[in-house]
């Protein structure tokens, strides 16, 4: 869209933005006051759907509570971490992360993966440790409150909407819907749009019809066959307690031929778009997002690889948009009271257990390519970044098989019921050895549609069943580099 065609942001939005900033500052002051005796570190955990947020948080909490051996977590290997316990969170307005329910699902008979993140939640862990600094150590044991905030990555894709008008968003959304890679999923919505007179009298049934068709298109684009990621508004995919509300009953509309009347369908949906920003996006940004200290972004790169180059490119665009929203950079203890910023970001390619360990370096290289633009921006702002290939709970083990005289590195596990590979549909009971394929040496090849694109086979596996036990009898979940992720996120705060 050319600059002369852009509609200016209404002046009425500016006081709201100012009020948001005041609210953020007051929230930071309140956090600082409550942490005057016991410091608090707020870590955001996000990722697009099925990236493994719930599993990561459950595994993190369980490992810290049970005292499991985490070789890469220095405070633990040095014997300085005394212990951890769940404590009451001071924010009574935000749902608590249902750790106990998620753990029960993983330890059930049979074990199942816990339900995915559908709304924001949080939980507080209080850690007791011995500092390795002489003066601090002389004062006895130290305490750190670790607040973990779990929220859907789809909601982050909404934050750029704050600076867009309904017209701008509609142009972008319709442009995406008309692209060849979305044609099949978007056609029913586009046909419903053509059959609707958007300049006619506002009608609730027409609004609901368009909103439903638009939502179905977004959800279809999210399925494994497409695995697309750039699909705002995020609450259309994960509405939470707002499902069915007027703030979620709108859709993008083509540019009108003349100024719409205030009682037209077009004007009504435009008002609902603005209400979505006011009721949904701003409170999330003000009350949660802008008050984070550190962030882990979980990325299901393998799902995008399974879907092909278009899904990989779309995932890169989504991650770049997501990371552009963060307030990043270093702050000193004084300025942090008024202006909280994220000083560390961890990018984690999840489900590394779906690959043999010999491919993990390639997976990290792919992740680095996906977040390259976001990483540059973060580092320029002064934030630290790191990338890891992880599996918070490992569902497979490794093996080797012979195939036509070749030795192939495989993973061994039980695929979930209904998983399909070739002509085989798995029953959820049969253990298999799978060669998932070779990741390319150059990540750039994954963005190109040509004959050299590797054939990859990634299935979803059931949780592990034969678990080891700690000295106290607690079940221990196998993992891949969870210890290094924990050390990066909180290790320096336990010194």
Descriptors for this entry?
YcjX-like; 3-stranded antiparallel sheet; Rossmann fold; single chain; 495 residues; Amino acid regulated cytosolic protein; 7-stranded mixed sheet; alpha/beta
Report on this model:
A hairpin with a 2-residue loop joins strand 8 (about 395-405) and strand 9 (about 405-415). A 7-stranded mixed β-sheet has the order 2-3-4-1-5-6-7, with helices on both faces. Strands 8-9-12 form a 3-stranded antiparallel β-sheet, with no helix packed on it. A two-stranded antiparallel sheet has the order 10-11. The protein has helices spanning about 15-35, 55-65, 75, 100-105, 135-140, 155, 165-175, 185-195, 205-220, 235, 265-285, 300-305, 310-325, 335-340, 360-370, 370-380, 480-490, and strands at about 40-45, 80-85, 120-130, 140-150, 295-300, 345-350, 385-390, 395-405, 405-415, 420, 425, 430-435, 470, 475. The longest helix has 23 residues, at about 265-285. By secondary structure, the chain is α/β, with parallel strands linked by helices. It has 3 domains: about 15-155 and about 285-395 and about 480-495, P-loop containing nucleotide triphosphate hydrolases (Rossmann fold, 3-Layer(aba) Sandwich), CATH 3.40.50.300; about 155-285, no CATH class; about 395-475, no CATH class. Residues about 1-15 and about 335-340 have low confidence and may be disordered. It is globular. The protein is built from 17 helices and 14 strands. The N and C termini lie far apart (about 50 Å).
């Amino acid at each position: 869209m050319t600059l002369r065609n852009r509609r200016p942001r209404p002046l009425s939005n500016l006081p709201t933005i100012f009020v948001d900033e005041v609210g953020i500052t007051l929230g930071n002051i309140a956090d600082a006051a409550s942490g005057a005796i016991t410091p608090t570190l707020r870590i955001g955990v996000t990722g697009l759907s099925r990236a493994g947020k719930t599993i990561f948080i459950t595994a993190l909490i369980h490992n810290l509570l049970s005292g499991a051996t985490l070789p890469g977590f220095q405070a633990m290997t040095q014997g300085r971490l005394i212990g951890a316990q769940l404590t009451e969170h001071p924010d009574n307005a935000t749902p608590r992360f249902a750790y106990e329910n998620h753990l029960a699902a993983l330890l059930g008979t049979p074990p199942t993966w816990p339900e995915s993140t559908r709304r924001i939640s949080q939980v507080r862990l209080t850690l007791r440790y011995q500092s390795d600094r002489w003066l601090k150590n002389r004062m006895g044991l130290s305490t750190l409150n670790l607040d973990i905030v779990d929220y859907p990555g789809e909601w982050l894709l909404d934050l750029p909407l704050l600076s867009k008008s309904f017209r701008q968003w509609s142009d972008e959304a319709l442009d995406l819907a008309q692209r060849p890679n979305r044609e099949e999923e978007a056609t029913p919505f586009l046909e419903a749009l053509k059959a609707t007179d958007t300049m006619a009298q506002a009608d609730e049934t027409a609004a609901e019809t368009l909103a439903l068709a638009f939502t179905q298109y977004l959800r279809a684009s999210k399925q494994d066959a497409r695995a697309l990621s750039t699909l705002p508004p995020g609450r259309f995919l994960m509405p939470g307690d707002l499902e069915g509300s007027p703030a979620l009953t709108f859709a993008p509309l083509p540019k009108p031929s003349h100024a719409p009347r205030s009682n037209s369908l077009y004007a009504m949906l435009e008002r609902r778009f603005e209400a979505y920003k006011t009721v949904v996006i701003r409170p999330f940004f003000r009350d949660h997002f802008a008050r984070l200290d550190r962030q882990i972004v979980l990325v299901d790169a393998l799902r995008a690889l399974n879907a092909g180059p278009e899904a990989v490119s779309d995932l890169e665009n989504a991650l770049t948009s997501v990371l552009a929203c963060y307030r990043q950079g270093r702050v000193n203890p004084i300025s942090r009271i008024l202006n909280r910023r994220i000083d560390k970001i961890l990018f984690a390619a999840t489900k590394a257990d779906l690959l043999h360990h010999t491919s993990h370096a390639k997976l990290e290289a792919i992740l680095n390519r996906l977040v390259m633009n976001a990483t540059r921006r973060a580092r320029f702002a002064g934030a630290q970044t790191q990338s890891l290939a992880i599996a918070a709970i490992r569902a497979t083990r490794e093996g080797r098989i012979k195939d036509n005289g070749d030795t192939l590195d495989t993973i061994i596990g039980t695929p979930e019921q209904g998983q399909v590979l070739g002509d085989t549909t798995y029953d959820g009971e049969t253990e298999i050895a799978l060669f998932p394929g070779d990741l390319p040496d150059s990540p750039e090849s994954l963005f190109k549609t040509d004959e050299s694109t590797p054939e990859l086979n990634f299935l979803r596996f059931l949780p592990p069943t034969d678990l080891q036990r700690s000295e106290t009898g607690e079940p221990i979940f196998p993992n891949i580099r969870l210890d290094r992720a924990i050390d990066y996120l909180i290790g320096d705060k336990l010194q």
